[in-house]
Amino acid sequence: MSTVTPTLAAPFTDAEVARFRADFPILGETVNGHPLVYLDTGATSQRPLSVLDAERDFVLRRNAAVHRGAHTLAALATDEFEAARERVARFVGVDDNEIVWTSNATEALNTIAYAIGNASVGRGAPASARFALGPGDEILVTELEHHANLIPWQELAARTGATLRYVPIDDDGALRVDLLGELVTERTRVVAFAHVSNVLGTIAPVEAFVAAAHAVGALVVLDACQSVPHLPVDLRALDVDFAAFSAHKMLGPTGLGVLYGRAELLDALPPFLTGGSMITTVTMEASEYLPSPQRFEAGTQKVSQAVAFAAAIDYLDAAGMDRVAAHEHELGARLVAGLAEIDGVRLLGPTSGVERVGVASVDVPGIHAHDLGQFLDDRGIAVRVGHHCAQPLHRRLGTVASTRASSYLYTTEAEVDAFLAAVPDAIRFFGGLR
Amino acid sequence: MSDLQALYQELIIDHSKHPVGFGLAEGAAAESHQLNPTCGDEVTLQLHAHDGVIDRITWEGHGCAISQSSASLLAQLVREQPDLSVDDLTVRIDAFREVMRSRGTLEADEELLGDAAVLSPVSKYTARVKCAMLAWVAAEHALAQVR
Question: How far apart are CA A284 and CA A296, in angstroms?
């Protein structure tokens, strides 16, 4: 069921992880009198010195507005900005004109949804007519989506009269892939789903979704926020039409997201955000737009952030994404096995038959996630608590909130063990289970 | 006592496990539902009152030990201080809020707030102040309806 080819890559040795950690000064911080145990990379990753150095060097020596102005710095900045785009494109196996900078992955997903919405009212016709949605058309998502890959589609359905449907999950949290055959029909126009669940850490069977969608001519939108940072991902090989991911979850800066779209699709879609730097000709009545990616990049761009992101990708490539995946696979297995040993702890998501990244979310009946998180924080252990922007998933699994531990290339086995040791102590502290 | 033990005093754990005033009742003068969207904590609070005097508070909800014990301690406060007027309860809600917003610089007055004073250390944890305030905000909204 996995979409990841098992690799023979070796997990990092302790010495290698120690070398990574030396590049991340924050990992040496003390929190509440304890060494920081950072298990919240799923929310945001930490940044190595090389990423900050790259941004600083750019800002101090070559900073200028891009794609406008003819002075030397403007040319240098534009080159570096575009080189960063090329760097991202190469990392995920696509062409550079297929990479659009956005403010975050949420904006990337909204860009597709709003561009389709604009096509649905005739903007960009006739090229965009193929994207137009209306009553009778269907958008398919899944029940485990992050709100960022759910609400834009709810809104698109509401604006166009299309119907939003979803692939349910079972009692264990596994996607009901067996229902794809009946859920994907001639009416289906868009299939949007998470590559890796941000709560469960489970990997979706991309091939099955893509095959079902493309068989009926539907567009595939992949929320790759939790996959591109943690697994080797080749978007071309996966054959998805659009994808979104975020720089800050993969050693890069906040404020920068990526939208991937197949070039012929991006060039046929009308823009979402409009304004400066995305036009060819403007009159007082109407405007004509540049081809992608500039068509989708209105206004001042996140230039130094893009430069920093390229350095983050260099860092990940030097480490080796197959080894990052192998390292996290081991940590994930350690988390799952360790949690299974603790009485009264319920691990969310299927434990067999589905591959996971190094993420585990737990529900401890009788102890609210915020209280558990507070206890862990007192020991310097940073985890995510709450619904993780996935309320429908939690509701389906019979809880409101959970506690999530997530790992990265800099996470040690000792950190996972510190978390595993703290959970039973928290249960004792709060007076046992209800 | 560690910071964590100061935050989660036994009284708080007890109230979260054996809440006072839990369960909605008929004949409430006002009701307010409050939700903390970041964590999903919820409280539905009912104010029972006659002639401008608060008789009791009943409530239902779910969430963390702080939000649930805080609702329980508020219900207990009204039980232990009979014949509070709308203004009296407003004074107490304002006093509680002032402590909660104090970032650890104020201790609640036990004369005024009873056992709810045990929540004072929450003010050091800014992320948790909303948890402690949830039921008190609900009471404030309910009071506005009977005023």
Answer: 21
C-alpha span between A105 and A148 (Å, rounded):
8
Q: How confident is the model at residue A1 (pLDDT cuts 50, 70, 90)?
A: very low
The beta strand positions in A138-256, using DSSP E, are 138-142, 163-167, 188-194, 219-223, 242-246
Q: What are A238-246's contacts with CB under 8 Å, separation 24+?
A: A238/A3, A238/A206, A238/A207, A238/A210, A239/A210, A239/A214, A240/A206, A240/A210, A241/A265, A242/A112, A243/A92, A243/A195, A244/A102, A244/A105, A244/A108, A244/A109, A244/A112, A244/A149, A245/A105, A245/A108, A246/A104, A246/A105
**Does A3 score more than 80 pLDDT?**
no
Asked whether B136 and B70 are in contact (CB, 8 A), the reply is yes
Mean pLDDT value of segment A111-132: 97
Which residues constitute the domain of residue B141? Answer: 3-146
Catalytic residue among A74, A211, A279, A389: A389
Which of B13, B62, B128 lies closest to A400 in CB terms? B62
Residue type, A182: E
Bridge partner residues of A175 (DSSP): A169
Q: Specify the CATH number for the domain of residue B138.
A: 3.90.1010.10
Total domains present in chain B: 1
Only one residue has tokens 């009545």, namely A285
In B, minimum Cα distance to A378 occurs at B4
A225 is catalytic: no
Nearest of A297, A340, A285 to residue A111 by alpha carbon? A297
ipTM of the complex: 0.90
- CA triple A325-A250-A210, angle to 5 deg: 65
Instruction: Tell me which residues of chain B have a C-beta less than 8 Å from any C-beta of chain A.
Output: 2-4, 7-8, 13, 17, 38-41, 62-66, 125, 128, 131
Q: What's the pTM value of the predicted model, to 2 decimals?
A: 0.94
Q: Residue B66: name the closest of B145, B125, B141, B147 by CA.
A: B125
Whether A410 and A315 have beta carbons less than 8 Å apart is answered as no
Cβ–Cβ under 8 Å, residues A118 and A131: no
pLDDT 10s digits, A270-281: 999 999 999 999
pLDDT at B37: 86
- Cβ pair A32:B128 closer than 8 A: no
Q: What domains are defined for chain A?
A: 14-48+321-429 (3.90.1150.10), 52-316 (3.40.640.10)
Of A371, A394, A401, the CB nearest to B65: A371
Distance of CA A265 to the CA centre of its chain: 21
Buried residues in A191-219 as b, exposed as e (16+ CB within 10 A): bbbbbbbbbbbbbbbbebbbebbbeeebb
Beta strand extents in A262-323 (DSSP E only): 279-282, 287-289
